[in-house]
Amino acid sequence: MTRKPRRQRDKLRRKNRRSGAGPGRAGGDRACSDVLGRAVVLHQSGRPRDALRVYRQILDVEPKHPEALEFAAAAAFEAEDFQQAADWLRILMEIAPGHAPALDNLGAALQQLERFDEAVAAHRRALEIRVDNPDTHFNLGNALRKLKKFDQAAAAYRQGLEFRPDDAEALYWLGRALNELEKYDEAVASYRRSLEIRPDDADTCFYLGSVLWTQKKFSEAETAYRRVLASLPDNEDVLFRLGCCLQEQGKLDAAVKTYRKAVEIEPGYAAAYNNIGYVLTMMGESGEAEAAYRRALETQPGFAKGYFGLALIRTPKARDADIAAMENLLAGPPAADEEASYLCFALAMAYEDKGDYERAFQHFEKGNRLKRSSIQYNIGDDENVAERVIKVFNKVFVDLYAEHGCSSDEPIFVLGMPRSGTSLIEQILASHSHVFGAGELEEFGSFASGMRQTSNVGQGFPEAARNLGPKALRRFGDSYLTSLRRRAPEARRFTDKLPGNYLYIGLIRMVFPNARIIHSVRDPVDTCLACYRMFFQREMNFAYDLADLGRFYRVYARLMRHWRAISPGRILDIRYEDMVADQERQTRRLLEFCGLPWEDGCLSFHKTERPVLTASASQVRQPIYKSAVNRWKRYEGHLAPLLKALGPLAAEKSA
Q1: What pLDDT does residue 604 have?
Q2: Using an 8 Å Cβ cutoff, are 484 and 411 in contact?
Q3: 8 Å CB contact between 649 and 571
């Protein structure tokens, strides 16, 4: 549960560059009248407004005096009278149409007036006269960026950098443009180069951290945010972002401490209190978590995420009062779709706890409809990706490359559809003395996403996997293992339980041919309904429409049939319903497949004290219960779109 922080520039204000015309830079003409000389002296001494009065005296007498126009425009710019600066520069251009610095300064003034199309035209005319002025290229880039023409802006910055390659400011803005173009690796490189030249620039460090966060490189993002805090130690927004990075890395105690520092600086920081509650929920501290959520609601009454967090804890305290408060919020002035959606999901869970399933589904349906309307998603895209994955990762290809992967059997991958029981399986394994439960790791998804950046032919995943060599596989595998071992140096085995890794089973087998792969399977209708009942904190765009859910489940089932066909004996299916019916037998199957000796503690998994970094944190701290089996029958009358989309799978008991 994170938010994008507010930007606080503090001491830093980035302005458009001007071309250098003005007193002290253009030199000044000592043959000018004494009045012009007096104006120049005032201007050079940092008194542009006083200088302007004198320049006006000259221009009243001689309105087309070139030096007076140029210097007066510079003084007007510094005095932030940008319209006057532009007017004088236009007069100057009538006298000297080939004056490139004046054209560039005109563009800079027009940018301050937010007339960006005109600014672009002025900068381009200046470059037609003098192409080798880097400041003009940079100013052009700034204007294009304001027009959201990020590809052209990046090209302008790069052209300027050809003339001045060590310009830290231009490298910063190039990084901003590349980030908007989602060329994240290039943006990171530009920010890092800027920081080599200007190591302590807080803005550059902040945006470097932001793009690393987007890439899910949380450890590197943490380092960047710590660099910001070195110069801005009391910036609550940067502290908040740092806390998010720590949270994603499983450094939960440090995350809570960082969030608490943020609320010490800004006591009304509801989002930080909310994240404290979320992390404490994962740590099993439901009482403290509830207090944090309540504090978020005190500081920001009506804070929807706070009510949603309370619903996840499933605490009965003040439930009726919470329901009334949320109903009043929904009945009041329209809230933003996301806030209303959080309230709907929280209300649905509250009514479900009270056994009012009809009213619960009404709120689930409304919450999902609001969320679905706010995202762009086409199930056909996922269907296409699945077919391409199946085409690329055939048995011959996977088996051949697996010969070059890492030999380690330390990783255990737990995967499947979200809400299918993956958290339960990981909790059982993590209750074993040899195993560390690392939670939901993004490494394989990031590895796949990065292929477009490194591919020589411009392809992305899955086709770019054909270009992977043995060195790339081993390098990624070694990096992955190093990261895991750093989390728990004493552990002999590790679980990675990101459900969506089923898309990357081919890659997993190529990188770690000896890794164990556990596939969590649950009744298709129960699985899809469980997804529909959850407002996910990660991107699960398929989950907010019953028909989308049914078609997506069929995509997942198609992939799993393929992986089983090309990987006989390498994937263990654990059915949730079988685990509920006979916990000991299924646990023995699980441990035997992983090559782990039996330990009684695995049957008492709910007593294991460890962070659970998913929405299932409360459930896995309870003994095995049967109430989630066939839960869909409570809502059967509402599920026609799902049942139709699932087709024959609706009647099956496995994928």
Answers
A1: 84
A2: yes
A3: no
The answer to whether the beta carbons of residues 492 and 410 sit under 8 Å apart is: yes
34 burial level (CB within 10 Å; 0-12, 13-18, 19+): exposed
Confidence of residue 216 (pLDDT cuts 50, 70, 90): confident
Q: Please work out, in degrees rounded to the nearest 5, the angle formed at the alpha carbon of residue 432 by the alpha carbons of 427 and 433.
A: 135
Q: Which structure tokens are listed for 267?
A: 């006591």
Ranges of each domain in the chain: 389-594+627-651
Q: Is the dihedral of CA 262, 269, 369, 313 positive or negative?
A: positive
Q: Report whether pLDDT(13) > 60.
A: no
Task: Tell me the pLDDT of the chain averaged across its residues.
Answer: 87
- Is pLDDT of 6 > 70? no
User: Contact, 20 vs 77, CB < 8 A?
Assistant: no
Residues forming beta bridges with residue 414, ordered by sequence position:
518
Give the DSSP H/E element, type plus range, for residue 485.
helix 470-487
Helices (H) and strands (E) in the chain, counts: 32, 5
pLDDT at 10: 33
Q: Which tens digits make up the pLDDT trace of 552-571?
A: 999 999 999 999 999 999 99
By three-state DSSP, how is residue 112 classified? helix
Residue 66 is which amino acid?
A: P
Instruction: For 496-545, write each residue's pLDDT tens digit.
Output: 999 999 999 999 999 999 999 999 999 999 999 999 999 987 789 999 99
Give 518's DSSP letter: E
Residue 21: pLDDT band (50, 70, 90) is very low
Reply yes or no on whether the pLDDT at 14 is more than 80.
no
Closest Cα partner for 104 from 167, 35, 18? 18
Q: How far apart (Å, rounded) are the C-alpha atoms in residues 371 and 394?
A: 37
Cis preceding-peptide flag for 470 (omega within 30 of 0): no
Residue 161 has pLDDT above 70, yes or no: yes
pTM: 0.81
Radius of gyration of the chain (CA): 30
Spatial separation of the C-alpha atoms in residues 565 and 572, rounded to whole Å: 13
Query: What is the per-residue pLDDT across 452-486, written as a single tens digit (0 to 9) for each?
Result: 655 455 578 999 999 888 999 999 999 999 989 98
- The 3-state secondary structure of 115-166 reads CHHHHHHHHHHHHHHCCCCHHHHHHHHHHHHHCCCHHHHHHHHHHHHHHCCC
How far apart, in whole angstroms, are the C-alpha atoms of residue 10 and residue 5?
14
User: Are 108 and 16 a contacting pair, CB within 8 Å?
Assistant: yes
Measured between alpha carbons, how far is 298 from 515 in angstroms, rounded to an integer?
48
Write out 256-313 in H/E/C secondary structure. HHHHHHHHHHCCCCHHHHHHHHHHHHHCCCHHHHHHHHHHHHHHCCCCHHHHHHHHHH
Between vectors from CA 37 to CA 35 and to CA 64, what angle results, nearest 5°?
Answer: 65
Residue length of the chain? 655
CATH fold of 389-594+627-651, please? Answer: Rossmann fold (3.40.50)
Contacts of 127 (CB under 8 A, 6+ apart): 100, 133, 136, 137, 140
DSSP line for 206-256: HHHHHHHHHTT-HHHHHHHHHHHHHH-TT-HHHHHHHHHHHHHTT-HHHHH
